[in-house]
Amino acid sequence: MISTLLATLATGFLPTSIKVEGGGYLRFALEGRIVYSKTANLVSRDGRLSEASGATMMPLFILPEGSNSVQVGEDGTISIQSGQIRKELGRLTLAMFSASESLASQGSYLVARTRPKLEYPGEGGSGKLVHGNVQSANQLIASKPPTANRQPLTNNPKLHTLNSLPFLIIPEKVVLTTTRMTLDQFVQGDVPENLKGRMRLADFGIAPKGGFSTRITRSRIETKLLMVGIEPKDARFQIPEVVEVCAPSQTIDAKTVIAAALKAVSEKSGSPVELKVEGTVEPYQAPMGAIEFKTDSIIERGNQILVAVAIFVDGKRINSKQVTFSVELAPIVIKAGDLVKVEMRASGISVEVTGRAKKAGRVGESIEVEVMLGEPAVRTSHLAVIKAPGKVEVKL
What we know:
33 strands; mainly beta; 4 helices; single chain
């Protein structure tokens, strides 16, 4: 019920003035930001309760078609009269600032650098609404507004108990399976039926895909609440400073990626290999679905092997990871110019001669050697496999 009727605003009414006697400030939306005033000339503009200069009253009050008049109570209750029926639209809230906050003028309004606490008129030192003459919107502002012991409208479960209002909690992390982000999906627990529809109208855009997230600030959520007409009389909210919104995902750990890269190297070499991983392979958050790995490339560079592994989910390529392996090389056992024993093999016959290595190598590697064969001796070059330090084998 309205404690005291301050003013009746008939459709097409002349501006009717109200002002705040106390520490609170009326709130309005003007050009995308919230502005404040101690006083207001209220009118109906485009079906909304507004200040005569054009700013929209906050929270938003939509005046239904066919309303004969609008009443404003000193406790902030707004109701409309349609024929013989009166219906309450909601209740105004007043902004309360700390004693250290100085408000700055912006035209006929005031702006603040910090977010205020919100109180109902007549509560928490906010003062009451009275009907009176209005001069300029910021004429009655003190440089340091009075303060009082008060409870904020959000983040206070005790208020829920005292006032029997729904206490709605929005967690710091929200996981969505839908394509768009709407406020009704953010709230934990059951949302009252009278709020669900309005919360669905609070749309924050396209939801992130799996493996990605987006951050939504508390101030943005509070602005959306005001825009869809949800006010303190409807519910109490606990909202973190930042809400992270993401899609369901699965973690592809480093071991899984490394195993896929090692398998690719083994398949290329034709036998299992043991390699050492260089650097760090970071885990990856992928969308839900069947995971498959494919090899983009295998590049050998000195004692390193670089493997590019593509990640597919449900047949769709979503990312790739590079794994770098280091190869433990055996020591060089023959240097270029060394004299070596060359075992010449042909048709089951073996002859050992002396030769000279033309390049360095390790056991198992192939190098070129020169030997003197025949009578008279002829210098010839052969491809030889290093069998041991100082010893190679040539197959003729």
